[in-house]
Amino acid sequence: MMLTNDELVQLTGKRAKNAQIRALRFMCIDHKIRPDGSVAVLRAHVDHVMGGGMHLSQPKEMEPNWEAI
Question: Do residues 20 and 14 make contact, with C-beta atoms less than 8 angstroms apart?
Fold first, then answer.
């Protein structure tokens, strides 16, 4: 699905469409310009580029194998 206008503003920090496009290019985020001039950005692409969806688990504490002793 696509980012909403508010999400696009939050992502780029810009309200003007041409400034959003420059910011997206700078961040290497693929986007398309719709016929009405609005910017379309896939949410999945942003998640991928920005590292979203990655679950970095904390290392588990190691405990001795008491049965081996």
Answer: yes
Tell me the whole-structure pTM to 2 decimals: 0.72
Query: How do residues 8-52 score in pLDDT, each as one tens digit?
Result: 999 999 999 999 999 999 999 999 999 999 999 999 999 999 887
HEC-encoded secondary structure of the chain = CECCHHHHHHHHCCCCHHHHHHHHHHCCCCCEECCCCCEECEHHHHHHHHCCCCCCCCCCCCCCCHHHC
The per-residue b/e assignment along 4-27, b for 16 or more CB within 10 angstroms, e otherwise, is eeeebeebbeeeeeeebeebbeee
